[in-house]
């Protein structure tokens, strides 16, 4: 999976877990650290509510997940950190109690829509009880070495270290 700058359309690198495996960052080159994902996808059209399994992540929490602080709603908390968790069902609200890469977080995994024609993936969060599924923007914070998902990118793109990015699959 690659991250491309939304403004400059330059590939920034590949998704990789940090050394302590808490969250995803962007590795500037395809290396042994780059995550290898598997998922069931349509060859044509849009596949909705996809969960991506990271084959390199710890087996108890192998799924690419949005992580938010316990007891919050994404639109109120502002962002979700891209990490790993156990599998959640499509359209489930953020859950807790199972294995997760960052302590004290709730998570969702089935938040990705995949477009076969562009190979782009888009995060869409199930944020009940508001009964709203906000489309999220992906923000790369190069200073913190962290990828965040947010419904309000304008709140986070306020430094030179933060960039809107597009996530895409690469078939290697």
Strand content: 35-45%
As for the CATH topology, it is: Trefoil (Acidic Fibroblast Growth Factor, subunit A)
How many H/I helices?
A: 1
Derived from helix and strand composition plus strand pairing, the structural class reads: mainly beta
**Helicity level, as a percent range?**
under 10%
Q: Return the CATH architecture.
A: Trefoil
Q: Which H/E pattern describes the elements?
A: EEEEEEEHEEEEEEE
Basic shape: globular
Number of domains: 1
What is the CATH C-level name?
Mainly Beta
Task: Report the mean per-residue pLDDT as an integer.
Answer: 84
The largest pleated sheet is described as: 12 strands, antiparallel
Count of β-strands: 14
Distance between the termini: 10 Å
The whole-angstrom Rg is 15 Å
Poorly predicted runs:
none
Characterization of the model:
The protein is built from one helix and 14 strands. It is mostly beta strands and 172 residues long. It has one domain: Trefoil (Acidic Fibroblast Growth Factor, subunit A) (Trefoil), CATH 2.80.10. The strands form two sheets. Strands 1, 2, 3, 5, 7, 8, 9, 10, 11, 12, 13 and 14 form a twelve-stranded antiparallel beta sheet that branches. It has a two-stranded antiparallel sheet with strand order 4-6. Strand 12 and strand 13 (146-150) form a beta hairpin. The radius of gyration is 15 Å and the shape is globular.
């Amino acid at each position: 999976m690659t991250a491309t700058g939304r403004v400059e359309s330059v590939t920034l690198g590949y998704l990789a877990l940090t050394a302590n495996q808490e969250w995803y960052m962007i590795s500037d080159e395809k290396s042994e650290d780059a995550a290898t994902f598997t998922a069931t996808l349509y060859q044509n059209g849009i596949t909705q509510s996809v969960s991506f399994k990271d084959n390199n992540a710890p087996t108890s929490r192998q799924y690419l997940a949005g992580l938010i602080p316990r007891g919050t709603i994404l639109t109120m908390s502002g962002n979700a950190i891209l990490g790993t968790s156990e599998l959640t069902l499509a359209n489930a609200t953020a859950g807790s109690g199972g294995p997760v890469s960052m302590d004290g977080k709730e998570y969702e995994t089935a938040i990705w829509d995949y477009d076969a024609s562009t190979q782009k993936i888009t995060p869409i969060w199930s944020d009940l009880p508001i009964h709203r599924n906000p489309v999220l923007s992906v923000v790369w914070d190069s200073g913190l070495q962290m990828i965040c998902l947010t419904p309000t990118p304008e709140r986070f793109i306020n430094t030179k270290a933060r960039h809107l990015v597009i996530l895409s699959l690469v078939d290697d």
